[in-house]
């Protein structure tokens, strides 16, 4: 619930400052959190909130890539600003080196040695890195380790 209080405080600040971008992004995050709460039928846990924030970030990053490919720099710039705002509420992301260390430790734990163990590895490592690392980076690190 700390996230909700932070969002409400930031929403008030954005309203007073007439910051339309921040208002829109915060309202979208709050709407996503509300939708998730209704879908689950109970108050959100910290993990649930993290899932929603990760989804919001992923959607914006994917859209940013599509707009960049289409040459729409105006929309890319807007999404960059939105991504920056959403990242403010998400936990700090781990570097690729930190992800690699966790993947290597997990490989030892689950005795993964070949690409046949890919599913087992991803199943073991993703809960450890949930919200702390992009799934694509984790996927790449696991594939690199298992294909050695």
Automatic annotation (TrEMBL):
Signal peptide: none
Superkingdom of origin: Bacteria
Native organism: Secundilactobacillus kimchicus JCM 15530
GO MF term set: carbon-nitrogen ligase activity, with glutamine as amido-N-donor
PANTHER family for this protein: ALTERED INHERITANCE OF MITOCHONDRIA PROTEIN 41, MITOCHONDRIAL (PTHR28055:SF1)
Protein's recorded name: GatB YqeY domain-containing protein
């Amino acid at each position: 619930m700390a996230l909700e209080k932070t969002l409400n405080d930031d929403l008030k600040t954005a309203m007073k400052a007439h910051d339309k971008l921040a208002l829109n992004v915060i309202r979208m995050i709050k709407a996503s959190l509300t939708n998730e709460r209704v879908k689950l039928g109970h108050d959100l846990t910290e993990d649930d909130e993290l899932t929603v924030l990760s989804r919001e970030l992923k959607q914006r990053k994917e859209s940013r890539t599509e707009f960049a490919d289409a040459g729409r720099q105006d929309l890319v710039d807007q999404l960059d600003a939105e991504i920056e705002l959403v990242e403010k509420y998400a936990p700090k992301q781990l570097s690729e080196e930190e992800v690699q260390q966790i993947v290597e430790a997990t490989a030892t734990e689950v005795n993964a040695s070949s690409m046949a163990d890919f599913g087992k590895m991803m199943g073991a490592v993703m809960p450890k890195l949930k919200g702390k690392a992009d799934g694509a980076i984790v996927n790449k690190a696991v594939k690199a380790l298992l294909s050695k």
